[in-house]
Amino acid sequence: MKVTVVGAGAVGASCAEYIAIKDFASEVVLLDIKEGYAEGKAMDLMQTASLNGFDTKITGSTNDYSKTAGSHIAVITSGIPRKPGMTREELIGINAGIVKTVSQNLLEHSPEAIIIVVSNPMDTMTYLVHKTTGLPKNRIIGMGGALDSARFKYRLAEALEAPISDVDGMVIGGHSDKGMVPLIGHATRNSVKVSEFLNQDQMDYVVQETKVGGATLTGLLGTSAWYAPGAAVSGLVQAIACDQKKMFPCSTFLEGEYGLNDICIGVPVILGKNGIEKVVEIELSEAEKAKMQESAEGVSKTNGLLEL
Ligand SMILES: NC(=O)c1ccc[n+]([C@@H]2O[C@H](COP(=O)([O-])OP(=O)(O)OC[C@H]3O[C@@H](n4cnc5c(N)ncnc54)[C@H](O)[C@@H]3O)[C@@H](O)[C@H]2O)c1
Ligand SMILES: O=C(O)C[C@H](O)C(=O)O
């Protein structure tokens, strides 16, 4: 199983490290445009192999896509992250061109690859890849909801004063500060609805802190987060590589599901060897449906900025 990660920066290198440590891939190729950067990150990571106990071979490439040939899965993290005070959507002017070129370069050498899009604004970048590559929609996956759901569980566990292993919850909708839809009504503590334990103010706080989770960290770090994003991507890669049939919220191209068309946005999907094996349509409350519709309007507005 060969995996390529384009962008050997904070998220890409973290993703590569988590994939290696999980040791399900034979090879991970890190590619970056900065001279020597991917090679350096790969060598540094390989020098953890005896310490972290993995056999995965990590190699680096400075913009030579021939090294990525035959990749089964390709992750796109190339592009700029936001600075404090920015929205993800403000990155479109620079990242759209990068993501378009990178996806084309990847597919030239790995025409059968499954593409996972990470670069922001992620839902719109996923839509861009869908529109410009012509790949079947099951092979284009946007990562955002898996990360947002991890932050949702973090906030739920904090509010519940419970171990994170007791908590479950999912975030759907757009991967944006205003557009996320944390499904608080579905969230549970060991199969018991969290509304049995938390009052409305506490639940509202969890939802709001989840929605701005990325911005909160960007404010603290001065750049985007990378550990949880890298871990979230590695989970999607593993589900595909190991044909796990696991359900994640991922950005995918919709054709009527959830009443939405011609958009990539976060919905529950089953991930396996074919990428998106199935879109799962769950029962939403009227309020959740309205939030999803509003979220989709925001994503479509950003999509409109693309020069397709
Ligand atoms: N979807 C999500 O949940 C999520 C989470 C975290 C970060 N992000 C996004 O991921 C992207 C990367 O974030 P980061 O913190 O890793 O940034 P970073 O600056 O640390 O890394 C980005 C890397 O991309 C490289 N790059 C730029 N143009 C390239 C090109 N044409 N080809 C190959 N490599 C290129 C840069 O040299 C840099 O090393 C940002 O757009 C960020 O907003 C998304
Ligand atoms: O928030 C960001 O700028 C990066 C990413 O989308 C995140 O949610 O961490």
UniProtKB/TrEMBL annotation:
Residues covered by the Lactate/malate dehydrogenase C-terminal domain: 147-297
Pfam families reported in the protein's UniProt record: Ldh_1_C, Ldh_1_N
GO function term, MF aspect, one: L-malate dehydrogenase (NAD+) activity
InterPro entries referenced in this protein's UniProt entry, alphabetically: L-lactate/malate_DH, Lactate/malate_DH_C, Lactate/malate_DH_N, Lactate_DH/Glyco_Ohase_4_C, Malate_DH_type3, NAD(P)-bd_dom_sf
Record carries keyword Oxidoreductase: yes
One of the GO biological process terms: tricarboxylic acid cycle
N-terminal signal peptide: none
Superkingdom to which the source organism belongs: Bacteria
Keywords: NAD, Oxidoreductase, Tricarboxylic acid cycle
Catalysed reactions, semicolon-separated: (S)-malate + NAD(+) = oxaloacetate + NADH + H(+)
EC number: 1.1.1.37
Chain residues that bind substrate: 82, 88, 120, 151
Active site: 175 (proton acceptor)
All residue ranges annotated as the Lactate/malate dehydrogenase N-terminal domain in the record: 1-142
Gene3D superfamilies in the record: Lactate dehydrogenase/glycoside hydrolase, family 4, C-terminal, NAD(P)-binding Rossmann-like Domain
Coiled-coil intervals, chain numbering: none
Enzyme class, first EC level, given as a word: oxidoreductase
Binding locations of NAD(+): 7-12, 32, 95, 118-120
Role description: Catalyzes the reversible oxidation of malate to oxaloacetate.
Family indicated by similarity: Belongs to the LDH/MDH superfamily. MDH type 3 family.
HAMAP family named among the record's database cross-references: Malate_dehydrog_3 (MF_00487)
Name this protein carries in UniProt: Malate dehydrogenase
Native source organism of the sequence: Croceivirga radicis
Gene transcribed to yield this protein: mdh
